[in-house]
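Recap for those who missed Tuesday's class. We walked through two folding examples back to back. For each one, the amino acid string is listed first and its predicted structure tokens come directly after. Nothing is annotated here on purpose, so try labeling regions yourself before you check the end of the notes.
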Amino acid sequence: MMKKLTLLALVGLWAVNAVWAQSGALTADQLKEIRQSYKEDSYTKAMENALSNNDINKLALNRDNVGKVDQNFKYKVDVSGITDQKSSGRCWMFTSLNILRPVAKKHFNIDKFEFSENYLYFYDIFEKANLFLNNVVATADLPFTDRKVNWYFKSPVDDGGVWNSFVNLVNKYGLVPKDVMPETNSSDNTRKMVKFIVTKLREDGLELRQMVADKKSKTDIENRRVGMLKDVYRMLALNLGNPPEQFRWRYEDKDGNLSEYKTYTPQQFRDDVLGDVKLSDYVMIMNDPTRPYYKHYEIENYRNTEEGINWNYVNLPNDVIKQFAIKSIKNNEPMYASCDVGAFYVKGSGVLSTENYDYGAVYGVKFGMDKKQRILTGESGSSHGMALIAVDVNDQGKPTKWQFENSWGPDSDYHGYLTFTDNWFNQYMFRFVINKKYLDKKTLKAWDEKAEMLPPWDPMF
């Protein structure tokens, strides 16, 4: 009996060791070695107690860097006041409108002005719904496991966008003042509204795919698609209000003079305010070290209107982008820009610096990825858009720090502004929109060349 039990024990032990010994699996010896590498000396035990009971940012905050970056700048554009996107993902829309606000203030000779973000937001979601339904019909013959089909259904609509999305909306729907279509609870807090619209669109998308499979006529499919859009319009109007087709508006100028009421369509108001400003004069430039520089790229299907333009950009080195940005700021023209705002962000400090935190010192490990590696692995990417408004330079004219006009309200960070060091620029800045007149011939030549098409699921986007 003992021999039998011993044999069974040996077999069991052999089976366990066989599992441990599988290719790539941790062996018992390896686990032992790893466990023994964790030396619980007094410092490690103190750090374990501290980290397990506190936010790591409190422990990693680099006290040597506190107060080292001031809020003064040699070159700064005339700012228009801080806006607040609240709990929404409309930073790109707020930023785009913010860089046009000085134009409106000058046109009307007024101290304060804000365009209606809610007005454009309504049509952004509505047009994205239309584009989604069109994409569903166009890919209805593909299996649901196809990557493109899966991508469309993953996010039929959302708050996100970039400069081309703004241009598409303004060109088609115009602009209105904020008091003509003010914010609502649903525009300030978009998550639930978008969730229900996404749910409805996914359901509608499945129905359209089935209609194509059943070989329904194009007319039947089109009529049904329009019916689906009526539901989306209703959901948006109930949450955001019904957008005006025409409105009466007046204003009081800096001298206290009250204008007469004037009736506008949104398109007429756009033309009146923007005047000679042409949105087509502005181009997006980016710093993406995963790809060759001085090339024109286009993101497939990254737009919000069926007939609109896709996201296009020229990829450039950071030092070249900085030269253009300084020219724009010196000429009192803010720029649309976007970045990885959460990187080394100290809430309330108003400063973004790669020296703000030392996470490696807390953990006793090294974090060493460069910008290219962070992009490729999904570790870093553009997450927030703001207006680039200021730059400080040293005696040699080289930039040392920059400043954003944010859209998180005037109580955030430094009175609503965020300052960032030049090294932070190198590591975490990505997109910029700038007037063509500040670009050199080499960049303009790249912009005029045929774009290389990139998929929307690329890690950079």
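Example two. Treat it independently of the first, because the proteins are unrelated.
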Amino acid sequence: AMGVRLRSRSSFQPPVQRPPQAEMISDRYGTRHVLAPSGACEEHARSWSGCAPGPGWIGCRLRRATTRRSRAMRRRGLGWRGLWALVAGVLTACGGSQEEAAGQAPPPGVLVAPVELKSLRERSEFVGRTLAVNDVSVRARVEGYLLEVPFQEGADVTKGDLLFVIDPAIYEAKVKAAEGAVAEAQAALTRAKRDFARYKDLAKKNVASKQQLDKARADMLEAEARLKSAEAALLEARVNLEYTRIRAPIDGRVGHIAVSVGNLVGPQSGELTHLVELDPIYASFSVSERDFLNFRKLQQEGTESVSGIEVHLLLPNGALYPKTGTIDFIDNRVNPRTGAILVRARFANPDKVLVPGINVTVVLVGQKPKEALLVPQAALMEDQAGQFVLVVDRDETVARRGVHLGRVEGAYRVVRDGLNPGERVIVEGVQKVRPGMKVTTKPWHAPDVLHSRQGG
């Protein structure tokens, strides 16, 4: 072994200098090569193992550590690499075709609507609730057994209609007793007056003493007082007798009957039924301090007045109440808990459509119209930067435009800032475009609905 090692050392030749202008490269299998121009010295080329001069470049193999396994892997690698190269070529060709097709595609089509300038009256909406002008809790004022209920629940009644009848027997007896007491008191007063007149004449003739005259006068005054007491008791008895027949105090609609015939009722038995007046009817709502002060400012400037404000009601089902109301009350102080002031409007309700307790939207419409810009609500979008629309300029190019919005007017929205009259905004097709793109435009037609729910 030592001899072999010595021979190996004796046969080792140190590498010579690489030919000038030569380059060393490695192929895909890990084999290193030296490439030199064809004009390089043949002596330098031959001094490298496996080198041979030739036209163009001379390839010199420096080291090639290969095994049976690495050769098999290289053969398999060549097959997969060839397949991947083929797929890449196909995809590249398809991509190029798509880019060419996109470059030739026409601009996307969108529907646009112009920014409209219209005269609108100032409008504000508030959450409110309907209230009855007169709301009565019907109760018994005297005690007794209920004999009759001559009305139907939910019926409309007029003032004076009979609602309940309590057993009047005991109260009729009290009336008769009070009438007897009054008659007795009147008789006593008549006798006292005659006695006083008699003693007065006798006193003038010095037949009766002054003491007797004073006593006769006192008896007469006492009889007068007793008569007044008896008359008051008679009046009370008659009133209690009248209370046995409970009548409607107002025009309105009665509610549920809380008791049935035969029950003992009285002042402590609670409510018998509820009666509310439906025509007219109130709608109360609260206005913030800021809105209230702004209105007062307009009122001082003469542009608005309480009598000139139209009040409308939007019902929970989305319908607009056909009657227009007026403001008839503004509270004299702000609620410290809510920071709002109570306002009440009055509405005619001849058909009894409204009942107390309905949650409504109260719409206040100003007196004088003002110009405002309107855009369809479908054109509005919002991102982190805020609300915006996409506009199309004269050369059919899309641009982004930030806007500040106002109130809703049906299918439209008031724009306070960011747009000019006549500009075209994209209503449909916004998902197909982006700022800077060319588009093809067609007019957008608004749905057949009112632009506004306000009256007038």
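Answers for example two:
The chain has four domains: 15-65, 109-119+370-443, 124-131+277-369, 137-275.
DSSP finds six helices and 25 strands in the chain.
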